[in-house]
Structure prediction request, 389 residues.
Amino acid sequence: MRIGIAALVLAYVLSQFYRAFLAVMTPVLTQDLGVTAAELASASGWWFLAFAAMQIPIGAWLDRVGPRLTTGLLLALGAAGAVLFALATGALQIKLAMALIGIGCAPVLMASYFIFARSYSPAVFGTLAALTLGVGTLGNVASSLPLSWAVTAFGWRETVLGIAAITAAVALAILLLVRDPERLEQAGTGSLLELLKMPVLWPILAMMVVCYAPIAGLRGLWIGPYFADVHGFSQMEIGKISLWVGLAMVAGSFAYGPLDRALGQRKWLIFAGNAVTLACLVGLWLFAAAPPAVAAALLIAAGFFGATFPIVLAHGRSFVPPHLTGRGVTLLNLFGIAPIGIAQLVTGRIHAATATVPPAAPFEAVFLFFALATAIGLAAYLWSQDRPH
Prediction:
């Protein structure tokens, strides 16, 4: 079981890499293919929307078929998407490739969470979920300075082809090593409608909408154009900033797990973390034109305090009936991932519509959008119930 989980965690490292690597690739893709920041925002949105659209069928497949085939076969499709990305000659191919990669990455984290929920006690689910996310976020780190170095040394097409080969190898490892939990008698019964009829989940779903979207959107794309356009940073300098934000996200994920177990309460831990993230987003809006050290510090803080995703998911999971585990975790994940894709499409349009002098203006609008969304989600989450564990 453990070696199979290790293969799934490695797949999640790749998932984190793919969702964030466009931020560092922006300068070279713009130079070689002539794609714009708005087109790359759309491509990032396609990844998240394809990822989100797969959550509903994946939930049923986890309950009925199991995590091994569900994850191994879809990740192989993601490897094919990475090959298409490496061969791309324009924006449309980049978008299609990102959609295929998003489909391939869609089941990997939920497959791990499905196994945790079925094989371990509810008391440790949040810790295991945060630990998996923390280790997986190393992929976010790999998509920063190490990616910048690889692109400079080998070229962007060669680098992406290498990542595609690694993705295919991990897909094969999952098919060979993952062991499905024992099936429940009721597995495959029930529906998403049964979950959506539970009012206790509604405020938690609202929190899922905003707990990951701001930092995923900023780290996954907007860091690159922001520091390039406003502060004149090179690709390597953008890689360094992305590295620090990625490390902060890793540290935050590791910090929230022990805090979850120590406090035994999730609601106010989640609320406090996202309130600090909101303060950072407001700071970015107010001080977008300030020296780059200010923006870097605020982004790093947002990366650390905004790493509540696994704890919010654990909060929602605590109310899900056992026979709906697969559907429950994927429903929660859908509400966490789909808004990122929508936000990337919206912020791409906001950026294009406000692109003017001074160069900080369109990014101020992007930061304000994320701040307002977070504030609304926090207000809705105040109505949530806690469940001691």
The chain is about 80% helix and 0% strand.
